[in-house]
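Lab notebook: predicted structure, single chain.

Context: the supervisor wants predicted structures on file for every construct in the current expression panel, including those that have not yet been purified. This is the next one on the list. No modifications to the sequence; it matches the entry in the shared construct table.
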Amino acid sequence: MNRTSDREIHDIICAADIPSLLEKERAFIASHPDYSVSFRRYFLSSREQKDAIGPGCGSVSYVVQPVLGENRVAVWLFLTKDYPVELLWHTNLCSASGDSEDQTEDILRSYGQALAGSGLNMADHCVRTWFYVDDIDNNYSGVVAGRKRNFESQGMTKDTHYLASTGIGGGSIVEGTTVQMDALAIRGDFRQRYLYAPENFNPTHEYGVTFERGVEVEYGGESHVLISGTASINNRGEIVHPGDALAQTLHMLENVEALLREAGSSWDEVQMAAVYLRNAEDYSAVAPALKERFVTKIPYVVTLAPVCRPGWLIEMECIALSK
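Prediction complete. Output recorded below exactly as produced.
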């Protein structure tokens, strides 16, 4: 089931294989002839599947994160019509320079240069990033260090602001690289407000990372709520319900709801969600709870993707509207 506003449509299509996925995708796009494809992200079981997809339309992201459940691949589609701002997607950004810290710095440096070439900058125009990290248990600390150093060079500190973001386990589409980044920037008239939900969360800088819990981006008379990767955490930065995937799922959903509420939104306004599970064997325990929350109203996908702390068994991100 897809979600729509007058200007945008989100859908997540799942399938057993790439040919079936592409057939469903073509049918969906054809059924909305007044809309253009702004963005597609494919969740793949292997890097080799990319070659079977082809260029298509809109900006395209690929990440190796096997889909859990009865399907094995999926695509998130983001379609727009008469959009009031320009969405600038940069996808599949990688670097072969050194370790995960070096790669992260190099990716962010190159991305900043690309924005500067369009008269933009990260601090003022980038609203969302995604970092996909191979062997995240060993490589995430490098991502954290490289990102922090780059952000400081651009004036983004705990006293200014960071960016909404997800940092999650995932295979890069470029062989030989450890870190892959996607980013969304906006050109046009828009306003940002960062989300904190202090009863549920502490500031991320208190445990050494540099991202915002979420951001509300207003343009064209609508507010778009971009929720960062969110896990079962409390306002002291501690993991809640260690070792219990179902209990972590329920607490994670409470945390996301708190961020939505702060933005004046709710589950009824969520347009899409991506859920990341560390262990495939936990899927049977958490799937009913996710289905009960999302029912058929919210397009979502669950992928096999380790969260950035070994103790976190599940994480999710979402996009919502708040009019």
